[in-house]
Amino acid sequence: MDQAPHQFGVRRGRASPRTRSVLAVLTALASAVACGAPTSSPLGDDTETRAPVEDETPPHSPRADVLRAAGISTLGDAAFVLLTDGRVAYARLPRSDPSAGTDAVRIGLVPSLDDAEQVSGRCARRRGGAVVCWSIAWTPEPIEGLPPIDHLSAATTLACGISEGRVWCWGFPGDPDPTGGDPMAMAPRRVERLEGVADLACGGESTCLAVDREGAIWRWATRSRRTSPAIERPRRLTVRDARGAPLSVAVGMTEACVRYAEGVVCSGPTTANEQVWIESSPSFTNMAAGAGQACGVAGGRLRCWGLRGVGRDERYDPAPVEVTGISDVAELAGSSAFCARLVDGRVICWRPSRMGEPLRPDEQVELPLAGVASISSGGSG
Questions:
Q1: Which of 2, 34, 222, 316 could form a disulfide with 206 if both were Cys (CB 3.0 to 4.6 A apart)?
Q2: Residue 8 CA to chain centroid, in angstroms?
Q3: What is the CATH number of the domain that holds 267?
Q4: Chain mean pLDDT for the chain
């Protein structure tokens, strides 16, 4: 059943077989990067995992050349980093021992890609607006049939982009069909009803939000069909007590948020799909939604809100808590984990705390960008 027009959170429930299959592949890839250590899926115990396959490991091994981040994205337990030279690095974040620090994180490079201008999940926008996406082979495949894309956002099984104010969406080439048949990549198609779109964000399995230049907020997702996925007709959402015009949107694993000048409205399963207002003074200039929590940046400082407590004491607290030890934040990304790109080009990542206390230094992991291989993007390293 479709959600009511005021409910814009990420659809929750047991992951579909196709999503479990895709996430199992991502988990295996991440485990291979992390020296073959197995890990559970970012969606929880009901998602299948499998042992890493040797040829699924990103083909580049670390070397000691220093590069900086120009952009970041997260998908489940994975972090994708757009480097200043146009390449895209990939890292899996530690699950259980944050105190292990940077040494526990291994970096790989997406091959044959050296002109990226934006990265979002398993897709990158290249110079000129062309888009490539990758799956189990780690080889970027061009998405044919797209106009030049100005802005890109990717979820687990769906990616969308803005081109001259219109929205196009597509599936991922090479994703496994859980029935054992051919891959079920959805060909690019334009999303009806959407014109003059200024910002969009996709997260979870396939939930997307967009805000247009008239201030309207739209929500859509995909529905699996027997032969191929289908895009839902976008629904215009009503934000109660909206204060001014919406500025941007964010969609995480379970949370979806809309940013305004005076604060943020979030909704999702953790808020019982009710809209919750989060005050921001000074104004948030950037935000990201995750799994049970969301974060915003104001004056370079990082503040997060959401689930607090454990067990029966767990509750959703809209009061932002400042994250200590992280400052000069330029950009945020959120999914099962959060990452922050700092002004100096470093990337700090962490997992949401449900205890309601600011993160300790040993709960933060800096991605070792100094270990990115210094090789040509077309090589196999």
A1: 222
A2: 17
A3: 2.130.10.30
A4: 78
